[in-house]
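Standup notes
- DV: blocked on the single-chain target, sequence here:
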Amino acid sequence: MGENNQAQLSKKWIIAALLQLLEKKPYSEITITEITKKAGVARLTFYRNFDSKDQILLTRSEELFQEYLAEIKQSQETIDIRQALLHCFEYWQKDARTMDLLIKNNLVYLIEQPFYTFLEEILAEIPDLKNLNDIQKTFILGGITRTMLYWISSGSTRSAAQVTEAILTLIDLDHLIKSEP
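- DV (later): unblocked, structure below
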């Protein structure tokens, strides 16, 4: 058990070290040696936990996605598309600085695939969207992902609620939102 806790701590330190280094220099110039030194771990510890620098960022993204998904699943009420979108934009806005660093370092590919997978899981939690076909799901997934990336990287002053309403208006999903009796 102690070893597992130590491994988790080492992962957190390595992730934090890479993010701190990204604040100061381009991703392409950051070495594994710098990361391990900043994290205070041995190079062997790095390779026990990660295959590459990319794997660090993928792991971090997946952990954040799992936290968000757990929050959605813990909700006692049925979630609709408006709530899911709003919560999604509010959640990722909290991590805007890191997302912006990834965008500026041309690392969008490390965000996109996990984000698609994550959004598919979210769509599965929304009863009204379970009947979407593959084309419709792909459109929604791509649109939300690209909107999120643009919203973060452009420094938009629009709120999460404004972005949510703009999307719903564009794709007219209001008919999927259950009306209150």
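- Follow-up: The radius of gyration is 18 Å.
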